[in-house]
Amino acid sequence: MSFDGSFLHAVRNELDCELTTGRISKINQPYPNELILTIRAHGKSHQLLLSANPTYARVQITKIPSVNPDVPSNFTMLIRKYLNGAILKQITQPGNDRVLHFDFSSRNEIGDQIELRLIIEIMARHSNIILIDQATNKIIDAIKRVNSDVNRYRTLLPGATYVNPPKQDVLDPFNVNNFKEIENIVRDYPNADVLADQLRQKIQGLGKDTSLALASYLHEPSELVDNFTAFFQRFNHPTPTISEIATNKYNYTAFPYPNTLSNVEYSSLSELLDQFYHDQVQRDRVREKGSVLIHVVKNQLKKNRTKLKKLQKELTETDQADQYRIKGEILTTYLSQVQRGMTEIELPNFYAENKPIKIALSNQISPSENAQKYFKRYQKLKNAISYLTEQIKETKAEINYFENIQAQIELANPEDLQEIRYELEQQGYLRNHEQHQKSKKKRHKVNKPEKFIASDGTEILVGKNNLQNEQLTLHFADKRDTWLHVKDLPGSHVIIRDFEPSEQTLLEAASLAAYFSKARSSTKVPVDYVKVRAIKKPNGTKPGFVIYEGQTNVLVDPDPQLVQQLHE
Asked: What residues have CB less than 8 Å from 271, skipping those under 6 apart?
């Protein structure tokens, strides 16, 4: 899997058709290394995503909505200053490198026309987005500033002269005039893997998977020049594909590569990238934005699991409580046979057919005090059993609560994390840094649940965290609506907005409940469903906790494609 120069060549062609001559209407930076330009072109608005994420660097048109920070970054403000309202003149790719140039025509503060170039360099952890003044080739700013201490060859700071990435002595596969060198390589290296390594060294913009596919093409019986040209022509007329390359391992390519297990085709490269990266990128964003929450939840789980083991061990030790009572009663019954100063006595156990039982004694106290000592031990352990049982119950409830929060974080969109944080603050597990501010505290507004539309048009609502679940089930849903939840596992509350839903809608809603739960990766997931009127919230319980009875159960498989299909 690689967003290499050849794949970028195909992306450039797609972006050129969709965006060139368009005007920028909006600029946002939803995440530290990502920029979204809304460009109005050919009667449509498109969201151009430029990502310098170290792991998922790419450029594409995206349809996935994003939530912007309340306060824009300095880089966002600067890009808005220079590019708001700018016209996109052309998109170019130097050679077959992993670099795209977006050339814009704009106007400065006094109304003079200026030519600007926005550059995205897709180079793993060195990926960057850079704005330069074309007239002077000076850097206006970069999303990742790089000073001379980090890179002496290329300083990426405001005011510095922009220097292109180091050029390699390699061939641009889309402009090859002499195939002699390639013919020699193919002749000298008949092994496909070795040939692929050599091709990567001689041809620009080949990732490992692309070089292996090219090696397979070049070993075909037809003429080498024809095979080479046909291979790279396919990047000009792509068939965007996600392929399974091994069990549960997938790759995306501009067209189907050889030796894949299965292929799913998409209408555009941007649609393919949205599909491929959505879940992975969301998980990373959640991990990045929710690192404090994840840390708190992990610590609470560790603490409570350790506490539970200790309590269960102590409870096991109380199994001897009845033995102390029995010994106390036997001593009381045969008190006349016990002499002061004895350290042990053997007496008949009338609880076990008068079989002899040895009873340890203290020689410092009277026989009666020895008996009372056993009764006191018994009473102490009896009280401990009650206390430990209650503590174990409370600790298990805490573990269930934090496992539920953990599952919600795993399933959350970045915008859902604020509500989870607010909940943990209200429950006292996380410090509220705003609680000492003098300004009047605003009431927290709960986000709306996620909306889905069933095949027959019925509305299905899904809560993504405890606050949304409570709001949805206890305050928003009609008592005659149908409520669903995965059985005995953390998950979302799901509401079907229909008093008598069809069987198909019920199964689709159950699949959503299974998908938005800890059982997302399982099969044959049991999901309970019942009318909302049967849902009760016990007093004093934590957010999102409810009880119910009279439910029916259905088995479903979580289906990501169905989720996407039903999403409004």
From this structure: 63, 240
Look-up of token digits 């174990």: 392
* Alpha-carbon span 418 to 423, nearest angstrom: 9
Give the closest residue to 290 by CA, choosing from 414, 401, 405, 408: 414
Maximum CA pair distance of the chain? 116
- Which tokens sit at 444? 């927290």
Sign, CA dihedral 13-15-18-21, equals: negative
How far is residue 185's CA from residue 170's CA, in Å, rounded to a whole number?
14
Report CA-CA distances (Å) from 181 to 57, 176, 227: 32, 11, 15
pLDDT the model gives residue 262: 84
Q: What is the pLDDT of residue 8?
A: 96
Nearest to 252 by CA among 231, 277, 282: 277
Pairing of strands 355-360, 87-92: unpaired
| pLDDT reported for residue 35 | 96
Instruction: Quick: pLDDT tens for 498-539.
Output: 999 999 999 999 999 999 998 888 889 999 999 999 999 999
Q: What gap in Å lies between CA 109 and CA 276, rounded to an integer? A: 41
Taking a C-beta distance cutoff of 8 angstroms, is the pair 511, 557 a contact? yes
